[in-house]
Design a protein that fits this description.
The structure is a single chain. By secondary structure, this protein is of the alpha+beta class. Helix content is 26%, strand content 25%. It contains 13 helices and 21 strands. Strand 8 and strand 9 (135-148) form a beta hairpin. Helix 3 packs parallel to helix 5 and helix 9 (402-422) crosses helix 13 (474-485). It is globular and about 80 Å long.
């Protein structure tokens, strides 16, 4: 029997692998670069596919073993923890992106801001995933990046007594600032550039003239103590032509005593942009941003303002739906649930009357068992039958039955005890939503119908449809009794 040459077999396999990749040509540039802290590294990934090749996803992780440990210690990026090998913990510098399959030639451009990088050598690989004949091909495109210490920005010299213009400033942000403060500094830089065409450098030292963002030693030396401000409050103050935007934050952006958050500096930056530069976020997307043009050669206003919100919890409900642009728009307009008190106003009936598999069923009788025990707590249908609550969110109680409100009070007490056990970080908190589900209540019993009145869509728009075009005063009466009875 004739033997098949091993060397020929090996060459044949290698040649086959080469053919599989022969139709893909891809490069990343620059593959090596030296850049300073605070600058932005810009990359291009060029690819060419043919013969059924498609590019369908890409991402760029950097693993702990390939970067200075100090970077992982202080970064504001999210660290993806490896279950068993800490050396392979990583950060997605470019998030995982799934694309519509791309054929032919193409270019992907991406940027990595280096504001929270530390000096040192970094190695990472841009990972592109191609498909050929329904088979996946993963390719790595390595990059070596040397990050050098940030150099003081070069600015024009000011004459003695000269009032600085906008373009003469730098943005100072303490290196130990919380993530929300660092993010606010970047936001300030971004929108000043959009308005004036001038990109103010973010620097680690307060070199006058500067805009100081967040609490710092120099702010405290000038009589502005962020820790002494009310929660969610901020100060905008000009001292010797330096502008201080200082707010109240919790250590590491943690919780307040009332289990909410305090992002005062971020609120101060947005107040400055809106009130003094005229920038507004009117609608989702860039077309909804109103950014008046401003000459970089105009001085900043002299300010002395302090503000703290009257309401400690604010809710901006997006009844227009949710997309990435809408979420960003809500964020620019101070978010959906914000404030220094605990935020949590979901539809309450689904938690007060849980399904058997929900954690709340440990403390209170689940909805199905409750229905079998006392069906009169639930809605009466038009044909005169009590309706078994479904497993979803939309089911209705009978608020015309006084026993229902008594049952809700009993459940709130028991669920607060359970919350202390399940969420010890919220222990002692007494915050309870009383919000019915959408389209509810809709019980047809005589008592519920007496308290019901129609809503006119012409008067309140689409919210009428959210509420089922009708409402009942019994909701408010039940809420009043609950609030009076519970301490």
């Amino acid at each position: 029997m004739k033997q098949f040459p091993f060397r020929l077999l090996f060459i044949s396999v290698v040649s086959l692998l080469t053919v599989l990749h022969a139709e893909i040509t891809a490069t990343i540039s620059p593959a090596e670069l030296t850049i300073a802290v605070g600058e932005t590294a810009n990359f291009e990934f060029r690819y060419s596919c043919s013969d059924g090749e498609t590019l369908y996803s890409y991402f760029l992780p950097i693993e702990r073993k390939d970067a200075p440990q100090a970077f992982f210690a202080k970064t504001t990026h999210t660290i993806n923890r490896h279950a068993t090998n800490e050396g392979y913990d990583n950060i997605f510098l470019v998030p995982y992106a799934v694309m519509n399959p791309r054929q032919g030639d193409g270019v992907i451009q991406f940027s990595i801001p280096l504001n929270d990088f530390v000096p040192g050598s970094y190695e990472f690989s841009f990972r592109a995933r191609f498909m050929k004949n329904e088979k996946e091909i993963n390719d790595l495109y390595p990059v070596k990046m040397t990050v050098t210490p940030q150099m003081p920005p070069v600015r024009r010299a000011l004459a003695k007594g000269e009032i600085p213009n906008l373009e003469d400033y730098l943005i100072y942000c303490d290196e130990e600032a919380t993530p929300s403060v660092k993010s606010a500094a970047k936001e300030l830089q971004e929108f000043i550039q959009k308005a004036s065409g001038t990109k103010l450098p973010i620097y680690k030292d307060p070199l006058p003239p500067f805009i100081a963002v967040g609490a710092s030693k120099i702010a405290k030396d000038n009589g502005i103590d962020g820790d002494a401000l009310p929660e969610d409050g901020y100060v905008l103050k000009t001292i010797d032509n330096n502008l201080f935007i200082v707010g109240r934050e919790m250590p590491n952006d943690g919780r307040t005593k009332m289990y909410g958050h305090s992002f005062g500096t971020r609120a101060g930056v947005r107040a400055f942009l809106e009130k003094h530069l005229g920038i507004m976020w009117l609608l989702p997307g860039e077309r909804g941003q109103y950014i008046p043009k401003r000459s970089p050669k105009t001085p900043l206003p002299q300010l002395d303002e302090q503000y703290a919100p009257f309401f400690q919890y604010r809710l901006h409900w997006p009844i227009c739906g949710r997309t990435q642009l809408i979420n960003q728009w809500l964020e620019f307009n101070m978010g959906e649930h914000i404030g220094s008190r605990y935020d949590g106003a979901p539809h309450s009936w689904i938690w007060l009357y849980p399904t058997p598999n929900m954690p709340e069923a440990k403390a209170v009788l689940d909805r199905e068992s409750t229905f079998r025990k006392n069906p009169n707590l639930f809605e009466l249908s038009r044909d005169g039958k009590r309706v078994m609550p479904n497993a979803g969110e939309v089911f209705s109680l009978c608020l015309g039955n006084p026993e229902t409100t008594e049952d809700i009070i009993d459940r709130i007490v028991k669920l607060n005890i359970l919350r202390d056990e399940l969420e010890p970080e919220f222990k002692g908190l007494r915050f309870q939503s009383l919000t019915p589900s959408d389209t509810c209540p809709n019980c047809a019993c005589e008592a519920c119908q007496k308290g019901r009145h129609d809503l006119d869509p012409k008067e309140i728009g689409t919210m009428a449809y959210e509420l089922g075009e009708s409402w009942t005063e019994l909701v408010f009466e039940s809420d009043r009794i609950i609030c009076e009875r519970l301490p």
